[in-house]
From TrEMBL:
The lineage of its organism: Bacteria, Pseudomonadati, Bacteroidota, Chitinophagia, Chitinophagales. This is Alpha-L-fucosidase. It comes from Niastella koreensis. Residues 728-818 form the Alpha fucosidase A-like C-terminal domain. Residues 27-280 form the Glycosyl hydrolase family 95 N-terminal domain. InterPro entries: 6-hairpin_glycosidase_sf, AFCA-like_C, Alpha-L-fucosidase, GH95_cat, GH95_N_dom, Glyco_hydro_b. SUPFAM superfamilies: Six-hairpin glycosidases (SSF48208).
Length: 822
């Protein structure tokens, strides 16, 4: 017992020391990246870089977060769509003719979204005449957001550091040699888009280019059609872009020409990279009405060049740490002393973990990587993180690297609030304003409805129509009407966590107008319930009575769950703002008669209006569990029957799936309060996919999420899910350690956020709460829940079923300690 206490006290001391500066947070390798998914990402929400760490020909693949094909969404693209709405409803509600409904749905489609594009490659050629370097290491330090490559050739140590500064809005590269004058190097730029290279003075190289006016998705290849079109003579040509690199060295010489920069005899060299596009908002043609990208790129580089490297680096580190250091998460390594995992390069470590090795520090590294990636990909003022965050090398990226809003975009932002990165949520919330404008046009044009609607895909232009090139899309994904409604949850969540009423007042009209559309969209079925028709369950099919696979039906569980969630959030928002009582009453009334959740014959939650047979019982989407997560309709105490049904559904679906599907399952199992099963899914998510993705869903060598292919959402779902295991707050309570797995025996987390404006630190030992500290952002009541008896300010919690619960009146800014009663 004494030994345990001493060990734990030591652990606490370590925690206190480490928690403010969590150590070991880096990804390192002992060889350069060959594949893109081995390269290391840096970013400032605007510029993204994938660093390969190669010796003689270093490659940094570049992105600029606004660089998309196309221009503002076109209007009146399918004025005929509306005429199919009544027939499709008739086919569904009267005839139950799902095949007919499917064909009609196709007639109600618009155009595909545009594509997120790569900016180009930055190449650093430094010849060592093929000599083998020694002491090679490349590393990404998550705490400083600096990537370093280090190696020695002929006794000379070379160091390359790269970071993307948000304050200076540039990428900065410093190359150093251990021996004076040892750096001879050239810098080149190229791009898969149209571009030209020019040189300015003697030390700057400029790549100026043009994005295509349209790029088709990679899965859409009709005959007689160019997938990439540069000239749109009738409409709007694509955006211009520019990337500049300036070399600064005190010791060496630099010349510049159309091949790039040529540096000789330098001891230390700093390269500053700026990038800009002519993107000027969702409603302006980036060609005719574009911004002056040249002036922007030149201005940024000139401003940065006036600063010292140390000054730029210090500003960058301070800025990054202001966000990153808000949360620490450590797990005590209770494994054998011979555990050497942390001395292995990360890819090897992941392989060992994937084969079953115990490595809690890899789990916390993965956790913090999710937070690192969100800080790097999503910054206020910029666009939201897309399917690949901001990192994409392909002209026709998988699924256009767009916003897929039937799960993926939302998933990107699940950790934003709970892991104390609320500011990083803002790009999504700001973009919703745009989507509500384009979505209002679509609601009117396609359905003659008020309010606004968005379907399953969008982009920087706010595409809101059902995609499919007017009939070529499969309704199983294209004709889904809940994208906007679901995204509105993020507006509410931002308020729920921050309690920022000013924000809520600006968000409320967007939420309300989504509800207005929905009130227009709902119809009554024969039993008097409000239902949606047409309706799909992303991206799954059922078998109709004749055994045919079908997608389009009535009132899928996801539709009804999202609508219930939206209405609840709008009702609560109108209460918080003390506004709109009549509208609130209307929503409350309609909510009572929404088609309800139902159980199937296996005890599972039904996905469709009827108990249809499923075509793919292990399908990656489990959309009907929306009410369990990210919704709040299903819970152990409020809806025990559906709580059990949700569990059954997940058991039937199984634990396999694409990266993001596994990530969502962590969150679901956490909400089912089953920490061990959630932990099993962490292991599934951290399954080593290999650089080629052949290992299946999971994680690439650079810890990027593997669908496969790469899709960043799973990283964020992983971080969010681990947080849900330690802290939940969606039911109006701060639930401490709701789903702690046996594998996380002792640990500590600091700086998490809970709804209601609370900041929470938790320490646990032997799988039980040891101590927690809660601070409130506003005066108010905090209802605390834990599965063990506890006290706060000498008041004991009361037992409620298996748990203990206590409501504590809190004063803004004061600390409240939760102690277990032994
Ligand atoms: C949805 C998913 C796919 C993929 C794509 C981007 O279509 O069903 O698995 O994640 O989005």
């Amino acid at each position: 017992m004494r030994i345990v206490t001493i060990t734990f006290t030591l652990f606490l001391l370590t925690v206190t020391r480490q928690i403010s500066a969590q150590s070991g947070l880096s990804l390192w390798y002992n060889k350069p990246a060959e594949a893109w998914v081995e390269a290391l990402p840096v970013g400032n929400g605007h510029i993204g870089g994938m660093i390969f760490g190669r010796v003689e020909e270093e490659l940094i693949q570049l992105n600029e977060s606004t660089l998309y094909s196309g221009g503002p969404v076109k209007q009146s693209i399918n004025p005929d769509a509306f005429q199919y709405l009544a027939p499709i409803r008739e086919a569904l509600l009267k005839e139950q003719d799902y095949s007919k409904a499917n064909e009609l749905a196709k007639k109600m489609q618009g155009y595909f979204t545009e594509s997120y594009l790569p900016l180009g490659d930055l190449l650093l050629k430094q010849s060592f005449n093929g000599r083998t370097p020694s002491a090679y290491q490349r590393r990404l330090d998550l705490q400083t957001a600096i990537a370093t490559t280090r190696f020695t050739v002929d006794g000379v140590e070379y160091t390359r550091e790269v970071f993307c500064s948000a304050p200076a809005n540039v990428m900065v590269i410093r190359i150093r040699a251990g021996v004076p004058g040892a750096i001879d190097l050239s810098v080149a730029l190229n791009s898969p888009l149209h571009y030209t290279i020019s040189a300015k003075a003697n030390n700057e190289v400029i790549m100026s280019g043009k994005a295509p006016a349209h790029v088709d998705p990679s899965y859409y290849n009709p005959k007689d059609r160019q997938p990439v079109i540069y000239e749109d003579t009738a409409g709007c040509n694509g955006m211009r872009f520019q990337c500049r690199v300036k070399a600064i060295t005190k010791t060496g010489t630099v010349t510049a020409d159309t091949l790039g920069l040529h540096v000789q005899h330098a001891t230390e060299l700093v390269l500053i990279v700026s990038a800009a596009t002519s993107f000027n908002g969702f409603d302006k043609c980036p060609d005719k009405e574009g911004k002056n990208e040249q002036a922007i790129a030149a201005g940024l580089i000139d401003a940065a060049a006036k600063r010292s490297y140390t000054g730029l680096q210090q500003d960058h580190v301070n800025d990054h740490q202001r966000y990153f250091n808000r949360v620490s998460f450590i797990l005590k390594d209770t494994g054998a002393a011979s555990n050497t995992n942390s001395t292995l390069p990360v890819d090897k470590r992941l392989q060992a973990y994937s084969a079953g090795a115990y490595d809690p520090a890899l789990e916390t590294l993965y956790y913090q990587y999710g937070r690192y990636l969100l800080i790097a990909a999503s910054r206020p003022g910029g666009p939201p993180a897309n399917l690949q965050g901001i990192w994409n090398k392909e002209l026709r990226a998988p699924w256009s690297s767009n916003y897929t809003i039937n799960i993926n975009t939302q998933m990107n932002y699940w950790p934003a609030e709970s892991t104390n990165l609320s500011e990083m949520h803002l790009p999504l919330l700001q973009w919703l304003k745009i989507l509500s404008v384009t979505g209002a046009r679509v609601a009117r044009e396609f359905y003659h409805c008020d309010g606004w609607v968005a379907h399953h895909n969008s982009d920087i232009w706010g595409c809101a129509n059902p995609v499919g090139d007017r009939g070529a899309g499969d309704p199983v994904w294209a004709n889904w009407y809940m994208g906007g409604n679901w995204l509105c949850q993020h507006l509410w969540e931002h308020y729920a966590f921050t309690q920022d009423k000013k924000f809520l007042a600006t968000a409320y009209p967007i939420m309300k107008q989504a509800a207005v559309f929905t009130l227009n969209w709902l119809v009554k079925d024969s039993s008097g319930y409000w239902v949606t028709a047409p309706s799909t369950s992303p991206e799954n099919k059922f078998r109709d009575e004749k055994g045919r696979a079908q997608a389009v039906s009535v009132a899928t569980t996801m539709d009804m769950s999202i609508i219930r969630d939206l209405f609840t959030n709008v009702i609560e928002a109108s209460e918080a703002l003390n506004t709109d009582q009549l509208f609130r009453n209307r929503l409350t009334e309609v909510r009572k008669h929404l088609y309800p959740l139902r159980k199937g014959s296996k005890g599972e939650l039904l996905e469709w209006y009827k108990e249809f047979a499923e075509t793919d019982p292990q399908h990656r989407h489990v959309s009907h569990l929306f009410g369990l997560h990210p919704g709040r309709q299903i819970s152990q105490h409020n809806t025990p029957e559906f709580f059990e049904a949700a569990k059954k559904t997940l058991e039937i679906r199984g634990d396999a799936g694409t990266g993001w599907s596994r990530g969502w399952k962590i969150n679901w199992w956490a909400r089912l309060l089953d920490g061990d099963h959630a932990y099993k899914l962490i292991r599934q998510l951290l399954n080593y996919s290999g650089a080629d993705g052949k290992g299946g869903g999971g994680t690439y060598p650079n810890l990027f999420d593997a669908h496969p292919p790469f899709q960043i959402d799973g990283n964020f779902a992983g971080t969010a899910g681990m947080t849900e295991m330690m802290l939940q707050s969606h039911l109006g309570e701060v639930h401490l350690l709701p789903a702690l797995p046996a594998a996380w025996k002792e640990g500590a987390v600091k700086g998490l956020k809970a709804r209601g404006g609370f900041t929470v630190d938790i320490l646990w030992a032997k799988g039980k709460l040891h101590k927690a500290m809660i601070t409130a952002a506003i005066d108010g009541v905090c209802r605390i829940r834990n599965n063990r008896p506890f006290v706060v300010n000498a008041v004991s919690a009361k037992q409620e079923a298996d748990d203990f619960v206590l409501s504590v009146k809190m004063k803004k800014g004061q600390r409240y300690y939760v102690h277990p009663l032994e």
